[in-house]
Design brief:
This protein is mostly helical. The chain has four helices and no strands. The radius of gyration is 15 Å and the shape is elongated.
Length: 104
Amino acid sequence: MTQKKVDFLLFKAILELMKAKKHLTNEGLIEIISIKASINKGLTTLLYNNFTSVVPIIKPKVNLVIINQINLIDFVVLQMLKVVFLLIFVLIEKIIIFNFMFWK
């Protein structure tokens, strides 16, 4: 499994939590932020400063894979989705900060 695939699966877990409305609870929000802290470059400065006690989850190990046609297709699709994911992460961050402002 590649690093991008692991990050994609973690991102998918965040979407599943949001689908289950877990982002509306304090525990669910902390869980989402813990997952986000493990994806790509981790938390943004804004999230890190507001959620200093959050511990990133442990990511699954990444195995080096020999590139074959299927892996190449996965790679290309994941590259194309990267921009979409980044935009969604910005939206998630804004939702988290918006919710956090009302809890203070």
